[in-house]
């Protein structure tokens, strides 16, 4: 495998992973499989998940490496979508490379692009006034969502390489706004299996599924949730996130669950040798 992939090559690889996921049970039965440490929490407000988020940050690395070029031996990277406190709505096409060089993450969706906006901006972008009240941010004030799709795929590169050096990470976590369905009763879940509507899948370099989990729910408008995992070594090359069970723009009423995202937190991207 050529591990000096540029973003366009990563996008081509990513497109093969944008189809609906297959059975997940195979992961737990893989020979020699080692489960990651899982951090998760859900509740009505940011305080409900703060402890889990802080614990996850420490597990990945106490130092936030921010925009420092890599490769670095330790620490983590974070993306909070807030642009230094910006309240503006920002729309970008896919693939979205706004944090590719600074944080080492490239974002792809089968939709038309991505939006960073406060709740009011999401309401305007998706033409649904209810969104101004059903979503809350973890780090004020902007949230993040794919447009014309509920799928976001993340590929990792060495920060500072401009997407020229492929990387893997020990773990990835994200914060989710308004995950309502705890029982999978909507179109995206299997009734009665206690699975929430939002699914996160972690893949290795060869496209193998390493781990998957549904995000915990906090029923009721404005709830907030967190899910993150940590492996012993940097083995995660891509993350596929299915937010909710319907494309944003729809009314958030059972059996439909519209979900958007906030902070992304991931281990320092390590150069693939």
Query: What is the subunit organization of this protein?
Result: single chain
Distance between the termini: 10 Å
- The chain-level structural class is alpha+beta
The domain count comes to: 1
Helix content: 10-25%
Number of DSSP helical runs: 5
**Order of adjacent strands in the largest pleated sheet:** 1-12-9-14-2
Tally of strands: 15
Query: Major sheet: size, sense and barrel closure?
Result: 5 strands, antiparallel
**What is the element string, with H for helices and E for strands?**
HEHEEHEEHHEEEEEEEEEE
**Poorly predicted ranges:** 1-6, 8-17, 19-30, 183-194
Radius of gyration: 17 Å
Shape: globular
The portion of residues forming beta strands comes to 25-35%
Mean pLDDT: 88
Please explain how this structure is put together.
The chain has one domain (36-261). It has 273 residues and is α+β, with helices and mostly antiparallel strands. Helix content is 14%, strand content 28%. A hairpin with a 5-residue loop joins strand 10 (199-203) and strand 11 (209-214). Strands 1-12-9-14-2 form a five-stranded antiparallel beta sheet, with helices on one face. It starts with 6 loop residues before the first helix and ends with a strand. It contains five helices and 15 strands. The protein is globular and about 50 Å long. The longest helix has 14 residues, at 47-60.
């Amino acid at each position: 495998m050529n591990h000096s992939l540029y973003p366009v090559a990563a996008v081509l690889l990513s497109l093969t992973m944008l189809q609906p996921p297959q059975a997940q049970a195979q992961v737990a039965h893989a020979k020699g499989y080692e489960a990651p440490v899982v951090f998760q929490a859900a509740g009505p407000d940011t305080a409900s998940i703060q402890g889990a988020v802080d614990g996850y940050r420490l597990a990945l690395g106490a130092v936030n490496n921010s925009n420092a070029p890599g490769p670095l031996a330790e620490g983590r990277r974070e993306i909070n979508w807030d642009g230094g406190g910006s309240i503006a709505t920002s729309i970008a096409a896919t693939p979205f490379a706004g944090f590719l060089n600074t944080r080492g993450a490239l974002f792809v969706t089968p939709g038309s692009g991505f939006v960073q906006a406060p709740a009011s901006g999401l309401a305007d972008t998706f033409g649904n006034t209810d969104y101004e009240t059903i979503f809350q941010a973890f780090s004020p004030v902007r949230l993040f969502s794919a447009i014309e799709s509920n799928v976001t795929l993340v590929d990792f590169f060495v920060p500072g390489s401009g997407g020229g050096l492929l990387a893997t990470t020990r773990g990835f976590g994200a914060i989710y706004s308004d995950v309502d369905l705890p029982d999978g009763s909507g179109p995206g879940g299997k009734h009665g299996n206690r699975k929430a509507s939002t699914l996160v899948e972690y893949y290795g370099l060869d496209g193998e599924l390493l781990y998957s989990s549904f995000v915990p729910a906090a029923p009721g408008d404005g709830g907030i949730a967190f899910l993150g995992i940590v492996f012993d070594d940097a083995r995660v090359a891509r993350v596929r996130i299915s937010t909710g069970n319907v494309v944003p723009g729809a009314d958030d009423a059972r059996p439909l669950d519209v979900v958007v995202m906030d902070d992304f937190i991931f281990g320092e991207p390590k150069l693939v040798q």
